[in-house]
UniProtKB/TrEMBL annotation:
It comes from Fagus sylvatica. It is a single-pass type I membrane protein. This is GOLD domain-containing protein. Its main location: membrane. The keyword Ribonucleoprotein does not apply. One of its GO terms (cellular component) is membrane. Keywords: Membrane, Signal, Transmembrane, Transmembrane helix. Belongs to the EMP24/GP25L family. The keyword Membrane applies.
Length: 221
């Protein structure tokens, strides 16, 4: 009996640890609202690692518009860290984009109101941006694998653990890159300091030599 209680307590503790790691290390997404100005662009970005699925839905929020044709239309553009165009559409009230990342870095999504809409009136855009495990369709997975209940939850936990592992490895690689850049910068600064000190010593020696030569020429010493 005591052994069963201990095993159950360990299982509960393990579940709590997984829940904590999932909620703190795996980015949970929810829809955000962007207030688009009548002129100008509003952008959002996210630092995403390589080989990650990205899925997003967006639409113009209509708030008591008297006539449907007065609903503003927007344009959207999504670019990769190296400036590659991943999604571009104009004159829409809603849209969707999905892709798998091939580069690590900041992915940028920009939205703006189309020019034909009357000036001075902005718009509100709802954006649901999901990445990694959050972008996975678990209902389709459950139907395909013919699983439900506890098995599905365990599969979700397995995906969360894998996402945590991938995220930690990504952070480790980024930390190594930053450390390498920092060490390289420190080495360059050290060489620059040595060169500056050597140049100062050389200039001082030349000044002393010039003054001594000048005083000898004027027969002051």
């Amino acid at each position: 009996m005591a052994q069963n209680l201990t095993t159950r307590a360990r299982a509960v503790s393990f579940s709590l640890v997984l829940l904590f790691l999932t909620t703190h290390l795996v980015p949970l997404t929810e829809a955000i609202w962007l207030n688009l100005p009548s002129s100008g662009t509003k952008c959002v970005s996210e630092d995403i690692q390589n080989h990650v699925v990205v899925l997003a839905d967006y639409y113009v929020v209509v708030d008591e518009v008297p006539q449907p044709h007065q609903t503003p239309t927007v344009s959207a553009r999504v670019t990769s860290p190296y400036g590659n165009n991943l999604h571009h559409i104009e004159n829409v009230t809603h849209g969707q984009f999905a892709f798998t990342t091939t580069e690590s870095g900041n992915y940028l999504a920009c939205f703006w109101i189309d020019g034909e809409h009357k000036e001075g009136v902005g718009a509100t855009l709802s954006l649901d941006w999901r990445t990694g495990i959050a972008a996975r369709d678990w209902d389709s997975v459950a139907r395909k694998e013919k699983i439900e209940g506890v098995e599905l939850e365990l599969l979700k936990l397995e995906g969360a653990v894998q996402a945590i592992h991938d995220n930690l490895m990504y952070l480790k690689d980024r930390e190594a890159e930053m450390r390498e850049v920092s060490e390289s910068t420190n080495a360059r600064v050290a060489w620059y300091s040595i060169m500056s000190l050597g140049l100062c010593i050389l200039v001082s020696v030349l000044q002393l030599w010039h003054l001594k030569r000048y005083f000898h020429k004027k027969k002051l010493i």
